[in-house]
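Example 9 (inverse folding). The structure is encoded as follows.
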């Protein structure tokens, strides 16, 4: 009883001991959750930043490869030996893309010229030979006497590497001839050069 009274005579000491023994546990319990949550957020943030950086790097690589493919096709097409007196009136390039529809493949090039000089089969053969194409020409490039409106007079089909070339000549009465070029990825359904 004396010991209990002696202890009771020091309530401040008990209170202090109670504080020093109880509060550290509560303090740790109270702060452990937010601290762990903060660490988790930091980890998730670092992971997200890493994934974003990886995504950006992947996109840059894809764009670089797409540009390289398109530039290679353009470089091939410029090797066509186009006669100097043909006037170019159209030049459309559809660049390589990650997704290309089969009905509108890419990369592809579309060009058109007009000329007052009648186009011959020899002109088309010289064009194809200059670009190193394996090719064939259909038609005589001469307007049939029975034609009264615009008509196709000859067509060149060529292949080089993975690209398909088609050049066709159309003739209109009293107008310059039109020469059209299409370059696109080679596909089995496209008309292939014979021989």
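The amino acid assigned to each position is listed next.
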């Amino acid at each position: 009883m004396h010991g209990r009274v002696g202890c009771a005579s020091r309530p401040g000491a008990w209170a202090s001991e109670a504080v020093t023994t109880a509060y550290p546990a509560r303090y740790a319990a109270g702060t452990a959750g937010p601290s762990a949550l903060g660490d988790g957020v930091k980890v998730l943030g670092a992971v997200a930043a890493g994934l974003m950086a990886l995504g950006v790097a992947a996109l840059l690589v894809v764009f670089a490869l797409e540009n390289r493919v398109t530039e290679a096709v353009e470089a091939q097409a410029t090797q066509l030996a186009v006669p100097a007196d043909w006037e170019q009136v159209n030049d459309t390039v559809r660049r390589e893309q990650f997704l290309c529809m089969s009905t509108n493949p890419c990369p592809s090039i579309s060009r058109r010229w007009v000329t007052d000089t009648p186009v011959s089969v020899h002109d088309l053969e010289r064009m194809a030979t200059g670009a190193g194409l394996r090719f064939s020409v259909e038609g005589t490039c001469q307007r049939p006497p029975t034609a009264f409106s615009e008509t196709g007079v000859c067509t060149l089909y060529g292949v080089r590497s993975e690209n398909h070339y088609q050049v066709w000549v159309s003739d209109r009465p009293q107008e310059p001839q039109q020469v059209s070029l299409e370059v696109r990825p080679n596909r089995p359904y496209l008309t292939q050069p014979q021989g």
